[in-house]
Design a protein that fits this description.
By secondary structure, the chain is α/β, with parallel strands linked by helices. The protein has 17 helices and 16 strands. Strands 13-14-12-11-15-16 form a six-stranded mixed β-sheet, with helices on both faces. Strands 2-1-5-9-10 form a five-stranded parallel β-sheet, sandwiched between helices. The protein starts with about 30 loop residues before the first strand and ends with a strand.
């Protein structure tokens, strides 16, 4: 892959690349989608890298976030089996506050007892959303974190997270390589069952997050300063856990040489190529520096597994983003018109060429939308003509929703929406605030988010500063649209 790739240009420009990876373009279309399951670094890959570049990725905290492979395997089997939920799936807190938490899901809080039926229903919805994401995705990434698991003392049940549980109710256990291989097989087998046997490429990765647990042998005591010294180093424990997981992954992949499985060395990239950058001691030693690290890991992933046509769209998207910033920062109309002319002559023909082959990368279409909207006030006909070129290339079949009709919408989206509506593009406006439903904005009525279901949307653009929450809400609705 060429060294001229511009994406995340500021990520570790000084590092020397040590790890050679085969260039296998497995993601070849902008419609390809990646479902992510595993440790907390999975969220960083999704939220700070893949999603911002317009790659279609799905990650959900409640079902997708699991420190241990065993707890993930338990949940995937449950979803594959369609096991009905009951009170046995809820951990009850034996204290004066009471409440409960679903122990197979990542809920970092307890719920009041009177919410029991509502939570059980919510679990059904979460299971179906996870199953839909796995059925609809074209690729899967599984990020393993640690062989360390948490078990309830009373039943031996492996729980997803022990947060807010009384310490005497659970114990820690370190799985062996053999046990981890079994749990990896359980995850993959369950995913295939959810997909009705349809295979898909799967990327396996070991998380670079440091799990700073103390050795298991000393956990029964309440650590004093002397006890902590006796317990040993959490760095040693973390290295031992990573070694177990790495051997387990190697063993599992060796057992499936003919499957479309791929090991992506995200852990090794951080440990070796970013060694001079990442702290190995001090207050934040357990957390690699974000977003620098996640950007770098995603960049290396894209270089080796994403087709050059998609990379070119991502690069154009990054360039357009800078152009939009320049247009918005200048007060001279003639300069805005000059930038629009430059765009029309340089980037627009390339965008139209991509649009004629496949749906555009969502970040590219969003940034083009914002750029032309910023220019439309000073050169409305030229901006409209550029929109027409792209719409024609897509055969006029384009369904767009914009989520959010507040100040950010007015500032950067409104002009573009007016142009699109004039050109006959189907645009839907929605907002999370119920007091906006039914309002007319730019000639369009704002609808409730639930109304988006069944509209067969191609793209959803988020016109709000609450990007993370809205992205999650879009996926919870089960929409398969590209989000940017």
């Amino acid at each position: 892959m060429s060294d001229s790739i511009k994406i995340f240009q500021d990520t570790a420009p000084y590092v020397r690349r040590l790890i050679e990876m085969p260039c296998v373009p497995l993601l070849t279309r902008s419609s390809d989608s990646l479902c992510l399951l595993g440790s907390c670094f999975t969220w960083h890959l999704h939220n700070e890298g893949l999603r911002s570049l317009g790659l279609n990725s799905f990650f959900q905290w409640a079902t997708g976030f699991h420190f241990s492979t065993e707890s993930l395997a338990n949940l995937m089997e449950r979803i594959a089996d369609g096991t009905p939920h009951s009170e046995e799936d809820l951990y009850y807190y034996p204290d004066e506050i009471g409440g409960f938490r679903p122990f197979q899901y990542y809920f970092n809080q307890r719920f009041p007892v009177e919410q029991k039926e509502d939570v059980l229903h919510q679990l059904d919805v979460l299971d179906e959303q996870c199953a839909a994401a796995l059925r609809n995705c074209s690729h899967l990434m599984l990020v393993t974190g640690t062989p360390r698991v948490v078990r309830l003392r009373a039943t031996g049940q492996c729980v997803a997270v022990a947060a807010k549980m009384p310490r005497f109710d659970y114990t820690h256990h370190r799985n062996s390589v053999e046990e981890e291989v079994i749990h990896l097989s359980r995850v993959v087998d369950s995913v295939l069952r959810i997909r009705n046997g349809a295979p898909l490429p799967i990327f396996f990765m070991l998380s670079p997050m440091r799990y700073m647990f103390h050795p298991l042998c000393a956990e029964a005591c309440t650590p004093t300063l002397v006890d902590s010294a006796r317990q040993g180093s959490p760095y040693v424990e973390d290295n031992l856990g990573k070694a177990i997981m790495r051997v387990a992954l190697h063993t599992f992949l060796d057992k499936h040489p003919d499957e479309d499985f791929h090991y992506f060395p995200g852990f090794e990239l951080v440990q070796d190529e970013l060694r001079a950058h990442e702290p190995f001691c001090g207050e934040h030693a357990h957390v690699p520096h974000f977003p620098h690290t996640s950007h770098y890991v995603v960049k290396r992933f894209i270089e080796h597994y994403v087709a050059q046509e998609i990379i070119s769209q991502i690069e154009m998207s990054e360039e357009l983003h800078k152009w939009t910033e320049s247009v918005n920062s200048t007060l001279i109309p003639a300069q805005k018109v000059k930038m629009l002319d430059d765009f029309t002559q340089s980037l627009l023909p390339r965008i139209v060429a991509f649009a004629g082959k496949d749906r555009l990368n969502s970040a590219l279409l969003r940034n083009m939308f914002l750029f032309l909207g910023a220019c439309a006030r000073h050169a409305p006909e030229k901006a409209a003509e550029a929109f027409r070129f792209v719409c024609r290339a897509m055969n006029g079949d384009l369904n767009i929703a914009i989520w959010g009709v507040g100040g950010n919408y007015s500032a950067v989206f409104s002009e573009g929406v007016r142009v699109l509506v004039r050109e006959g593009v189907r645009v839907v406006l929605t907002d999370g605030a119920s007091n906006n439903w039914g309002r007319e904005v730019d000639g369009l009525k704002v609808v409730a988010p639930e109304k988006l279901v069944g509209m067969n949307l191609d793209y959803v653009f988020i016109a709000s500063f609450y990007h993370d929450d809205i992205h999650s809400s879009i996926r919870q609705l089960g929409l398969s649209a590209r989000i940017a």
